[in-house]
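thread: overnight batch results

M.L. [08:02]
morning all. the overnight job finished for the chain we discussed friday. pasting input first so we're all looking at the same thing
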Amino acid sequence: MVPGQACWDRAKLLAHLPPGDVDCILEVPITSDRADTLVWGDHDSGLYTVRSGYLFLRRPPSLLGPPPRLWKILAKLPTIPKVRSFGWRCGRDALPVGSRLRDAGLSDGACPLCGVGFEDVLHVLRDYPDSSAALCEAGFNGSLLSADQVTVIDWLGLAASSLSLSSFALLLSVLWGLWRRRNTWVHERSLYPLHLVIEDVVLLCLDYASASASTQVSPPAAAAPPHWRPPPVGSVKVNVDGAFLPSACLGAIGVIARDSSGAVLGGFAKPIPVQGPASTVEVATLFAGLEFAVANAWPSALIESDAAVLVNKLHRPTADLSLLGDMLAPSRALLAANAARFRVGFTPRLANIAAHTLASWACHNNDVITFSSVCPEFISSIVLDDLSSSF
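M.L. [08:03]
and the structure it wrote out:
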């Protein structure tokens, strides 16, 4: 970008990037150099409107600081999800009762059941005579019904702190049944008998408890550790890996080839000087594996490395202008020249232990080893383990 200005430096971009990339970059707008400022914190947009300010001022004081314990209890309540959702709506005073409809100009605020009371959430769920009778029939004591809380969230908080978790779940289920009874009257002019409401709620709780007890979720089975797998019949698998000693600026390459029966066909390990990051060693291992397959003239070979980043870069269809992309150019060219015969793929480290051990040996001993059908003794047990785990 041009220093001190909110625009791109086109000349500098063209000097370092292809024209197509430059055109894409120039289309990206640049904001002016200033910090973001939150103007209004009571709306997701961060912008103040008269409506958002009015709604903020109209919120009951209890909703400005809801008891966090109540929300945690509601989230883990042993009941069906719609009852938990109903409890959350009660706590947020989000039920469309008469008082809320009156504020919206849709009602006079009177209770549709008794016709005289000012209908808020507490009136529907606790103070209406039928509601009190239903709660008594469900076994809730008079102290909970005669509580002097003036907001539903305070009343629910008292109930949650004084009742067990299962009793609070039953209370909330009864309240849900009373709310459904009220809505049936409002919309269908049909009023369920209270004893049916209680019976339905009790059956609902029993069904939920039975279903929860019978549904045992088994813990997920532990995934089997990855291991070396043989190539298809007629193909050869060449595993490659690198090792690096930063203190000595020394790296090493390990290569081992096996057929579909797991028999060792050959391999080698050798140290190499390193003037750069450890990734240069992994780049050299990929090229060494491809060269080894070419030298043996195998008709089909899969070269495997546990360097996922390099394998992905090698297969990237678009131009890679990174330093690693440039270092991978010889491997990419060799693979393209033998695309009909060779493939390069990723394998986890646990499935690449033989090549890793070869590279570590060469790095720590600063020595070279080459073998054909008889592998070195220090990896023979690894080769046998790979063989036994694959068949």
